[in-house]
Amino acid sequence: MPSEPRSSEVPTALGGLRRRLPTPPIPAWVPGVGHLSHRTGIYFDVIRIFGDRGIEVADELIATMDGNAGPIISPTSGRNAVLFVLPLDTVDQRSWPPGVFAHGKRWHEYVAIPALEVSTGPARWESHPTVERQYVDPEALFELVCRLTHWPGGPP
User: Fold this and answer.
1) 141, 61 in Cβ contact below 8 A?
2) Calpha distance 35→112 (Å, rounded)
3) Phi, psi (rounded to 5 degrees) for 39
4) How many domains would you assign to the chain?
5) Pairing between strand 110-114 and 35-39?
6) Sign (positive/negative) of CA torsion 107, 90, 76, 51?
7) Residue 44 domain-assigned?
8) Interval 55-79: pLDDT, tens
9) 121-144: per-residue pLDDT in tens?
10) Within 10 A of 48 (CB to CB), how many other CB atoms are there?
11) For residue 10, is it within any domain?
12) Fewer Cβ atoms within 10 Å of its own Cβ: the N or the C terminal residue of the chain?
């Protein structure tokens, strides 16, 4: 018998559950309204995973972290990639598996960050930043990706 989502959880477009909007303080890099484009390597780093693998990783990470995985963003249309927002200076410290794209200071990119309450635009939250978890845990993400891809990577 499937369990009912806790009142603090809502279904995601990827099929998992996410926590409702976090309580303040909201990270400085999250806009109050609309969307804001940020370059990686300034406030945060990003891991981008395309296709079904990105969805699989997001769903499993959200489930593993009891719905509080930290900031995970997916596009509302177009290229099917999931973004995992990690603390600054963490992606370049590891050798990520093929198909997992690390964007930090060395290989930067601009990413659209939606406001917490946005319902339209180029991106949406699958898991919000929270007071307890303002970023995705890099070690938990790395271990999960290595396990799912059978990549022999280990700790940095």
Assistant:
1) yes
2) 6
3) -85, 135
4) 1
5) antiparallel
6) positive
7) yes
8) 999 999 999 999 899 999 998 876 6
9) 788 899 999 888 999 999 999 999
10) 19
11) no
12) N
